């Protein structure tokens, strides 16, 4: 019989939480023949990346996944064989009682946030708390051997490489989004939280000697972009030009389309967790806007990733990457770090592809979860 999986997603940061759990749910169904229920407390956020979702329905099937609205007033529901609390969300007390009432307790996992910090390897798959005899386990995605790896669908890297070698396919895809970059223009994407450093970066992009076409999916950075452009409002479809920089606002697109957008671009600025991982699978230089946390503990996570990611770079290229990422995440001056990065572009670009292929040698997150369940039973 198929293993029954329940994945609980409490939407905190609009799209990152649901982005990860939606990808995971679909992959468990398609590649591992699992029976998956995805519980989501905010279907409006889900609708942005799955437009066919009916936000009024309590239950519906989408791409083989049993999508359930996670109501404030929980109804009696049998426990699954595997229960995933994504990003440490709290399960409904009634559901926890249902887990405890099972003749055979389910495998209960806390799927934690992605981190490159050293301690993650030591904590991965360790037991956590118990609830009436039901043991919870830590499960950490990660970049090192000994972690749960990263979300990566079967054949993804081969699809990406084929797409990037097909100029016509890229052109057709961009045209489907209304994107027509000038010949020779640097194509970049920007998906970020609010950031006061944006104006300085846009200034240098507009004057760095090469035309840039910047694609900006709808999101929280648009307010800063409006101020720099001096306009009252930005919406999907808007195009503005200043000197050598063209800014184009894109509508929110499905995850598969966003992947291809990243594959088309020479450089991708991303945020949170889901787009961060997808930018790495694009094999192109990237810039991560990490989610801000109290007491700046997010900067420790940033530094841990940078130390791992830049280990194989020359000292000068490493310094350029680190300077750019730190300036972006501390709202510092972006002009000089961007010029430093451009000076080392060939090495940084080659490294992005190498890093991608090295990470692709590890088991993907969905496979690691299934393997843990099979070893647990």
TrEMBL record:
InterPro entries recorded: EarP
UniProt keyword list: Elongation factor, Glycosyltransferase, Protein biosynthesis, Transferase
Catalytic activity entry: dTDP-beta-L-rhamnose + L-arginyl-[protein] = N(omega)-(alpha-L-rhamnosyl)-L-arginyl-[protein] + dTDP + H(+)
A Pfam family annotated for this UniProt entry: EarP
One Gene Ontology term of the molecular function aspect: translation elongation factor activity
Biological role: Protein-arginine rhamnosyltransferase that catalyzes the transfer of a single rhamnose to elongation factor P (EF-P) on 'Lys-32', a modification required for EF-P-dependent rescue of polyproline stalled ribosomes.
Family assignment from sequence similarity: Belongs to the glycosyltransferase 104 family.
Name of the protein: Protein-arginine rhamnosyltransferase
């Amino acid at each position: 019989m198929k293993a029954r999986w329940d994945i609980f997603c409490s939407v905190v940061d609009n799209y990152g939480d649901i982005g990860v759990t939606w990808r995971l749910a679909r992959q468990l169904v398609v590649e591992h023949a699992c029976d998956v229920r995805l519980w989501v407390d905010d279907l409006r956020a889900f609708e942005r990346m799955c437009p066919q979702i009916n936000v009024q329905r309590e239950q519906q099937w989408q791409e083989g996944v049993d999508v359930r609205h996670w109501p404030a007033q929980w109804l009696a529901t049998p426990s699954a064989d595997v229960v995933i609390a994504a990003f440490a969300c709290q399960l409904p007390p009634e559901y926890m009682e249902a887990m405890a009432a099972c003749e055979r307790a389910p495998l209960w996992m806390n799927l934690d946030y992605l981190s490159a910090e050293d301690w993650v390897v030591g904590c991965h798959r360790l037991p956590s708390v118990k609830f009436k005899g039901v043991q919870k386990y830590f499960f950490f995605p990660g970049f090192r051997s000994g972690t749960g790896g990263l979300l990566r669908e079967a054949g993804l890297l081969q699809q990406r490489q084929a797409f990037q070698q097909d100029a016509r396919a890229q052109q057709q895809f961009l045209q489907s989004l209304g994107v027509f970059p000038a010949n020779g223009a640097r194509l970049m994407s920007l998906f970020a939280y609010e950031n006061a450093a944006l104006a300085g970066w846009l200034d240098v992009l507009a004057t760095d000697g090469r035309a840039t076409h910047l694609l900006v999916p709808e999101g929280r950075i648009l307010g800063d972009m409006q101020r720099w452009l001096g306009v009252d409002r930005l919406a999907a479809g808007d195009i503005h030009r200043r000197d050598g920089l063209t800014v184009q606002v894109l509508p929110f697109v499905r995850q598969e389309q966003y992947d291809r957008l990243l594959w088309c671009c020479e450089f991708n600025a991303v945020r949170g967790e889901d787009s961060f991982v997808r930018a790495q699978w694009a094999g192109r230089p990237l810039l991560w806007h990490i989610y801000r946390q109290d007491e700046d503990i997010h900067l420790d996570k940033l530094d841990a990733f940078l130390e791992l990611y830049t280990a194989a770079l020359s000292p000068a290229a490493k310094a350029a990457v680190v300077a750019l990422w730190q300036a972006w995440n501390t709202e510092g001056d972006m002009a000089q770090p961007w010029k430093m990065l451009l000076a080392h572009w060939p090495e940084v670009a080659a490294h992005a592809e190498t890093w991608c292929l090295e990470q692709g040698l590890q088991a993907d997150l969905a496979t690691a979860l299934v393997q843990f369940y099979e070893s647990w039973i």
